Amino acid sequence: MKILLLDLGSSFIKYSFYDNLERTNSDIFSLAFPKPVIDSDGRYEVDRRKIDEALLRIMDDAEAGGCTAAFICVQMHGYLIKYQGGFSNYISWKDKRGLAYLNSVECRELFNNGTVLKANLPRVSLQSFPSLSGGEFFTLGSYITYVLTGKNETHITDACASGLFNADTCAPDNPFEGLSLPTALGEIKSCGKYKGIEIYPPMGDHQVSFLGAGAFKGDAVLNLGTAAQLCALTDKSAECFEGIEYRPYFVKKQRLATISGICSADKEALISRIKDTAGKLGKIQRILISGGATDIYSFFESELKTLGYELELCRQNVGNDGLRRIADSVYSRRGTMLSEIEFVNFPFILKKAELDFFIIDNEHGSFENKTVMALAMNARSVDIQAIVRLPNNDRAMITKLADGGVSAFLLPMTNRKEDIEKVVEYAKYSPAGKRGISTTRAHTGYGVTDINEYMKLANQRMKLYAQIETRAGVENVEKILDVPELEGIFIGPNDLSCDYSCMGDTEKIKELISVISSASVKKNKPCGIITTDKELIKHALLCGCSMVSYGSEINMLKKGATEITHEKYL
User: Fold this and answer.
1) Are 216 and 249 in contact (CB under 8 A)?
2) pLDDT digit string (tens) for 185-217?
3) What is the residue-wise DSSP string for 112-135?
């Protein structure tokens, strides 16, 4: 499906069209954010109608491009007020009218709201309004939702930038009598539709960019945009320091510890600020640089490495990459496993249940080849993907099953690129591999007219996956992903926890999932996970996994039998 990815920054509005099935992204288009109509005496306001024009123009492009969903991130701290007479201008985060009211704001402890006192904080600058009674407050994100769906809703990562919401509960913390607030959502779920396009709640651009940078615990992201920001993930229970914002993140128990407002023009001053503050963000091992940093990367590389940090330059447009991850998590492909029951009509049931794929387990299972072939052909007839998990990368089995109609293989215990390269060799025709040619078989429908064209089509249809479930696999994951004919990877958390001697240590497995999935996002190849652990699934989806194999036919049978025993009418 086609998805609009929309990033409203303070200088530019950037957008692209993403095909989550093909994992292709259009060029990123850019519009200048509207200029202010007021820029004096600390006030910085933008005509909201100019924002409307840009937004609706982009939505029309999305409709024409066949998009069916839109994911949005926005610059933070800006807002609008609606009275009976209509809307105010958009009051930008650059607005400083709250400076005179800092000392009069009663709430000085804003940790629970994920922010700190500052002149551009709406909780502060709203003090300058003579009356708010009967008014309605909109963040930029909730205003966008309102324009497109009629609902004043936004995501908590955007809402909390106002200082008016609790980061953990999403509940309002509103000191202004008579002022109504948006609905703050803790989940990423549809707010409604605009011309048939599902609109998802706008999210804070800072959090989305951190996600898009491929960062996880132990990383800090240095974002060199209009103003520099340094941030890292921390647990809510961690020690807190004055002047650091602890913004909400997509995982409830985590916060994005952020030092903002750093001047990025003065490189020496920025290095000095990092030296003084980076240690307060936690145990940082790696600093990822994003934003307009390409031309000064060498400067930071030499300076920061002397401080003991690893350094990495992010891809451009990390906001777009973060939105892609979130879109993949919402529209991930769901599947299950057939582990030991020989039921060749299984694909029909899964298709009725609207699953996207299933894995035939020939590693731990013991299916006859004829059963696997029948399952594969039935799956093809109802357009659901059947992936055969192999016992090894042996030529004989791969050849037989491919000729019998199997068009997707998963190799367990993939430790090196050479392991999966053998599967490529036996499953793909020349020039990609060396698969033997036998055409009057099930895979061709028992005959082809043009063998050269068929070989090209068969190579496109054949999808090969590597299962990463060992220490060696993790260490070599980027090299494995570099194999050109590899479609993607699956994470096996059970064997990972065994090989790393961390059985039951969920946090360690999450770290490994972060490493593996970040590598797959970096290489632009899909990543899946095989588990029934909902906490791991949620984490994997957030990290960019786009496929989940949940349970098996045995789990379904056990659950069904248990329901019968607990049915009170029997």
Assistant:
1) no
2) 999 999 999 999 999 999 999 999 999 888 887
3) GGT----TT-HHHHGGGSS--TT-
